[in-house]
Write a structure and sequence with these properties.
Strand order of the largest sheet of chain B: 2-5-8-1-9
Number of domains of chain B: 3
CATH superfamily of the largest domain in chain A: von Willebrand factor, type A domain
Largest interface: A-B, 32 and 32 residues
Order of helices and strands of chain B: HHEHEHEHHEHEHEEEHEHHHHHH
Shape of chain B: elongated
Oligomer: heterodimer
Shape of chain A: flat
Largest sheet of chain A: 6 strands, mixed
Low-confidence stretches of chain B: 1-7
CATH class of the largest domain in chain B: Alpha Beta
Distance between the termini of chain A: 49 Å
Number of strands of chain A: 8
Order of helices and strands of chain A: HHHHHHHHHHHEHEEHEEHHHEHEHEH
Radius of gyration of chain B: 27 Å
Chain lengths: 466, 320
């Protein structure tokens, strides 16, 4: 029974729910208190002990069903096995442990392992088949599966554990006989082999759902995080969206604490006197002045022309996922001209909003100078000394006047000015790029083409407010 | 079932998950199986319960109802930024200590009067009982008070997410060992461990150390059936017809894109308001004029006011 629990905890861990040793011990105590009998109670009880957040609860919810329905099947199968009724523990998920019976399962019936295996494959005794699968699965360490592509390998290993090689040898031998009788036997053996394979595949796939699925997801996410936005395919978008959401959450948590700066050395006389009035004015409690930090305010200024649009999508996605942390967010998009797009982004579904934005500002030639001028003229008041202005664009202004004077004024007005450029540093200043001219006024100018870069840049921006 | 964790006697209300449910029902709290299981485990595993969820779904109420059901005192500690040990654990009664030293000053001459040398006077002083730092001058704050309840208690640590991170560290000793250490006196352990309930609105992520020590319970908005049961318990005067319509409407509103979703406490307030207005069904005009009871933001009210008819219809269909 304990093995059932520890293996379930292992499954939870590989699914991304952090279960500590203390929590595992609590789970064991919980089982002692509530017992195994009532699955519903067990599920909620383990949920309170093992899953400590909404996400983890969802994982638990899903995995519990997956895992314990299999457990139930395995133990039901074990009970159906003759001679095992007296030993309720022997047939539990640790089916692989029940070594002594291994011999009986396969050879016991006819003495001929191949015949026994065929019988198994014909599904005459489902309990026995389930047992054999469990055993073979444990011997082939199917629990180690991490990628869907490994399933073929594990299926083969399981088949070998079940003794399919002998069956295959018999099959070859039957074929080589080249007689009608031999062909009929070969056909029967082939049928048995493919039936077994089907069973083994189903078994491996179920295990993959429990142990491998999330490991594979984690690996895919890792790759995606390092891939340039420009190289993302349509199929990656959904995964990327989930990834961005998670990263944003992580970032928000990291910056959740508004650190109070204890200004040691500056006594808050008023509050100290008041706090100590009860002690006859003898200052037992000294109260120091506290400086409060600004809340982050970001004005995002995004080039949505064709060349940069893909990058902007993810920046905006990221910024909006950060909403809890950055409550004060203004978004402007520009291409041919400038528009305040905070409203559509807040009210419409993201994809619709993006389409509407591109329609509104047009995707014609970008003019950075004109856009900065418009920003300063029409929305100058949104930028104050606690604002970080975040520019996303390649700085390619189609040889128009970059209006450095306006840009400098915006930079002076803001707390910081951060420019994220999708192009690598080697291209800055080439052709119609004005980046090198803008650079002196930026607090930070950095290349940003993957979601990891994006996270780093936003981390850096939020740091200024901690 | 024997109680292996505490060794103490298990109150009848905590004997099984079903017993918890009915105990809470008697105190007017309708518990889901998750809630009842968490309370049951909290007692039997001797662990605090951390409750998370949106505001107004009955997190604080749970602690109150458990205390009521067990007939134990509820000791409540409201957390806020800047809360520290002198407000949560204990404080010295400085005023009394000052008085004591003054009395001591008066008496000390008398005490060492007949001593000839400094050594002898010191010797006399050493023999003198030092009560400056003693229980007499200790002012217990909620956490210590909860440890000292001989008949057990329910300790509610409300809105833990509002406190500072350092405060969480302070709680660890209390929550895992049910004891409080006062450096000058020693360790004060609870006779009967209190049942501890922590609530959080998740304005910040709580520390791992704290989460690991707690059972975790997430209470979300209830479904229509449960909500109707809760409102009926809390507002007995409500008619079935009104109840059904109003719960259906609230459930529909929760599906809308608004900033602050109405929670159970708002549903209850609304039910009370409607009874005061002698309403026994909902019509669009009535809903519009009382929207401010369930929605707390102007933009949300504007958003919903435009859709009242559609929401009422939709709620109707869902209700039937």
């Amino acid at each position: 029974m304990e093995r059932t629990l520890t293996r379930y905890i292992r499954a939870l861990r590989s699914a991304g729910a952090g279960v500590s040793t203390t929590e595992a011990m609590d789970a064991a105590r919980t089982v002692e208190v509530v017992g195994w009998e009532d699955r519903g109670v067990l599920k909620t009880a383990l949920g309170t002990v093992l899953a400590k957040s909404v996400e983890e609860k969802a994982i638990h919810e899903q995995l519990f069903e997956l895992y314990f329905s299999r457990e139930a099947a395995a133990s039901a199968a074990a009970e159906g096995q003759p001679g095992e009724g007296g030993e309720p523990d022997a047939g539990q998920p640790g089916g692989g442990e029940a070594e002594p019976q291994a011999g009986d399962g396969e050879g016991g019936e006819g003495g001929d392992p191949v015949e026994a295996l065929s019988a198994l494959a014909r599904g005459e005794n489902p309990g026995q088949l389930a047992m054999a699968l469990e055993r073979a699965g444990a011997a082939a360490s199917v629990d180690e599966i991490r990628f869907a592509t490994q399933s073929g390998y594990f299926v083969r290993k399981m088949m070998e554990q079940m003794g399919v090689e002998a069956l295959e040898a018999r099959l070859m031998e039957a074929l080589s006989r080249r007689s009608a009788e031999g062909d009929a036997e070969a056909e029967a053996l082939m049928g048995a082999r493919s039936a077994l394979q089907k069973q083994a595949r189903a078994f491996v796939e179920a295990r993959f759902e429990i142990y491998g699925r999330s490991a594979q997801d984690a690996f895919m996410n890792e790759i995606l995080a390092e891939r340039s936005f420009g190289a993302l395919g349509r199929s990656d978008t959904e995964r990327m969206r989930a990834l961005v959401e998670r990263m944003a959450k992580r970032l928000a948590v990291r910056h959740a604490r508004r650190r109070k700066v204890r200004d040691r050395g500056r006594l808050d006389v008023r509050r100290t006197l008041r706090a100590n009035a009860g002690h006859d004015g003898v200052p037992f409690d000294i109260i120091w002045k506290i400086k409060r930090k600004d809340r982050p305010k970001i004005v995002a200024f995004c080039d949505v022309s064709g060349s940069v649009a893909q990058y902007v999508r993810f920046l905006l996605l990221f910024l909006h996922a950060l909403k809890e942390k950055v409550t004060d967010l203004e978004t402007f998009a520009f291409s041919a001209h400038l528009a305040d797009v905070s409203r559509p982004l807040e009210t419409l579904p993201f994809e619709t909003a993006m389409r509407a934005i591109v329609d509104e500002v047009g995707s014609g030639g970008t003019d950075y100078g004109a856009a900065f001028l418009e920003l300063d003229r029409d929305f100058g008041e949104v930028i104050d000394r606690r604002t970080t202005v975040l520019v996303l664009g390649d700085g390619r202004s189609n040889y128009s006047n970059p209006r450095l004077d306006v840009f400098k004024q915006i930079a002076d007005q803001a707390k910081r000015l951060v420019w994220l450029c999708p192009e690598p540093a080697t291209n800055w200043g080439s052709g119609d790029s004005c980046l090198l001219e803008y650079r002196p006024f930026c607090t930070l100018l950095t290349h940003c083409s993957t979601v990891t870069d994006l996270e780093r840049a936003l981390d850096e921006i939020l740091m200024a407010y901690d | 079932m024997t109680d292996m964790a505490t060794g103490a006697e298990t109150p009848a209300g905590l004997a099984s998950v079903e017993a918890v449910t009915s105990m809470l029902a008697k105190s007017g709290y309708i518990a889901t199986p998750e809630i009842a299981t968490a309370v049951y485990l909290a007692h039997h595993l001797r662990k605090p319960v951390l409750i998370e969820g949106p505001a107004g779904v009955g997190k604080t109420d749970l602690a109150r109802s458990v205390a009521q059901g067990l007939d134990q005192p509820l000791i409540r500690m409201q957390c806020y930024e800047g809360l520290d040990e002198s407000k949560a654990l204990y404080e010295w009664k400085y005023g009394k200590q000052l008085l004591y030293t003054q009395i001591l000053k008066d008496k000390i001459g008398h005490l060492v009067e007949d001593a000839d040398s400094l050594d002898e006077a010191l010797h006399k002083l050493t023999g003198f009982q030092d009560i400056f730092f003693s229980r007499d001058f200790l002012e217990p704050r909620p956490l210590l008070k909860a440890m000292e309840q001989a008949g057990g208690s329910v300790l509610l640590i409300d809105e833990i997410d509002k406190s500072d991170e350092e405060f969480e560290a302070l709680l660890l000793e209390v929550l895992s060992d049910y004891q409080v250490t006062v450096p000058e006196i020693g360790t004060i352990a609870a006779q009967v461990p209190p049942l501890v309930v922590l609530t959080s609105n998740a304005t910040r992520e709580l520390g791992d150390a704290l989460k690991r020590r707690c059972l975790h319970l997430h209470i979300d908005f209830p479904d229509a059936e449960l909500e109707a049961r809760i409102v009926r318990t809390r507002v007995p005067g409500v008619s079935d017809r009104l109840l059904e319509r109003l719960v259906a409407f609230i459930q529909a509103v929760r599906g809308e894109n608004i900033r602050k979703l109405p929670s159970i406490s708002e549903t209850i307030d609304w039910a009370r308001t409607l009874i005061l207005l002698h309403a026994d069904s909902l019509d669009p005009a009535l809903v519009r004029s009382t929207l401010n009871v369930i929605l707390k933001r102007q933009s949300d009210i504007a958003e919903v006011a435009g859709k009242v008819e559609a929401l009422l219809d939709g709620g109707d269909k869902a209700g039937r």
